[in-house]
Amino acid sequence: MLLHIVFLISLLLSTYSNASVQDFCVADLKGADGPAGFPCKPPATVISDDFVYPGLAEAGNVTNIINAAVTPAFVGQFPGVNGLGLSAARLDLGPGGVIPLHTHAGANELLLVIHGHITAGFISSGNIVYQKTLKKGELMVFPQGLLHFQVAAGKKGALAFAIFSSANPGLQILDFALFASNFSTPLVTKTTFLDPALVKKLKGVLGGSG
């Protein structure tokens, strides 16, 4: 029995020592995205710029219905995060701006406020709301898959950065799923208890059909 255990340990150590260890896997965005991420670029073609993303330096355009903008640095924009289990986004909120109720099916989120004040919160699966008005330098975490929101507090705008525990966290905004899609008005009414006239009005605002 002892010999069998020694043999198994030596086999595992041998397998581990001979395993191919890869420092990184910069995404080849021409390939297909799968559960393990994108395929890797050949190491010979990887350059320093693959690990730098300048896209969050510029403010997003908040001239829209929500008076806010989300600028992502997910694997699709930043191939260097492929396989690393993290990504980021910039949140620009104009006065009264709002990031409506939404979920990230694939990641937890950590929000850091850079300036201004943001009222943020999430709803647990027990239908309890956890919310807080955050100021500069404060962090809030949003557990994976739970509905959450961010709203500019006060009369000024705000800026925050979000860090996600996935290179591709996913995003679904509840209002857009209901009222910017072809989810039929009768079914939206039936499943949400909203008045049909209100559903049609919101579909008209957000461009939905059905």
From TrEMBL:
Gene3D superfamilies: Jelly Rolls (2.60.120.10). GO terms for cellular component: apoplast. Residues 1-19 form the signal peptide. InterPro entries: Cupin_1, Germin, RmlC-like_jellyroll, RmlC_Cupin_sf. Oxalate binds at residues 104, 109. It is found in: Secreted, Extracellular space, Apoplast. Transmembrane segments: none annotated. Disulfide bonds join 25-40. Pfam families: Cupin_1 (PF00190). Residues 54-200 form the Cupin type-1 domain. Keywords: Apoplast, Disulfide bond, Glycoprotein, Manganese, Metal-binding, Receptor, Secreted, Signal. GO terms for molecular function: manganese ion binding. Mn(2+) binds at residues 102, 104, 109, 148. Belongs to the germin family. This is Germin-like protein. It comes from Flemingia macrophylla.
